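Worked example 3. Consider a protein that binds adenosine-5'-tetraphosphate.
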Amino acid sequence: MQRIFSGIQPSGIPQLGNYLGAVRNWVALQDSHECLYCVVDLHAITVWQDPAALAQQTRELAASLLACGIDPKGHILFNQSAVHAHLRLAWIFNCVARMGWLNRMTQFKEKAGKDRENVSTGLFTYPNLMAADILVYHATRVPVGDDQRQHLELANDIAQKFNRDYGVDFFPNIEPMIMGPAARVMSLRDGTKKMSKSDPSEQSRINLTDGADEIALKIRRAKTDPEPLPSEVEGLDGRPEARNLTGIYAALTDTDHAGVLREHGGKGFGDFKKALTDLLVAKLGPISEETRRLLADPGTIESVLRDGARRAEALATPIVEEAERLVGFLKV
Ligand code: AQP
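Given these inputs, the predicted complex is written out as structure tokens:
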């Protein structure tokens, strides 16, 4: 069975893009793969996190993943800071990766924006830690949203350079698994910007904890254009907001843009938004309810994470120790 690793940051409440681009696929992959799913709190602090909120966000995210259907007994669910092997390998990778490679990362450019001199060095070296997260388990498949493709290419560059530098065939090649019509869900306020849990505008995203009224309001306010929905997919060209809403609908009904337009082409946004709201409420309602139920017992969530960390550590330790031996560290 192939081993999968994937992570999600406890940097806020998980949003619809996290669910459609990642978590929903994580659940499906449990049937056919050995899965490690990680709440990546080390990554989260690459941008400022309120210390009083971070631990609770970690619990909330774990609860939400369990509510979505992650199975912590058949697979492994844990928080990153609890398994030190990630950091040991990340340091080695900091010394393997080249500045030029990291300089090309579009996520860094987007997140740093004009304030490049003032962002943390952790934000810059984030892809090296991400490579370590995956390779410390010799995982070969990584289900992620489309936005992470470039980071996975970099992880492969790091693995290959390590193998070349040390004359070994130690780290495997990683294969991104980018799935579904909603591989990239866009902001409800701007169809050219990705939906994000840390977007300052609450109206830009659907949170997995939103109730029916919040979902209805956010979809009603979602930016659109004055034209009705087209009947053909080509009619979505140059209409990013229309494409985004039909993409969300398609992902939730396991169809594609063409399928949605066959059903809704020619309708105005008023009608389509009503149908989309009903669908979102039906799909997300049970998740938010179960998340709330789990959060009432934080001790159980913590013990799930503790057990996952123990099992993850047992897999990662021999691999990081071998990497350290290859590098030439003296074991005393
Ligand atoms: N809008 C999105 N569409 C599709 N997939 C998405 N993912 C995130 N946003 C979208 C996927 O969710 C997984 C976990 O992401 P993450 O939380 O580790 O980091 P992120 O991609 O930076 O997500 P956010 O919500 O935008 O977080 P913040 O605001 O903290 O930066 C990844 O597989 C990602 O592709």
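Take a moment to read the result before moving on. The beta strands are 3-8, 34-39, 76-79, 141-143, 175-177. Residues 245 and 276 are 8 Å apart (CA to CA).
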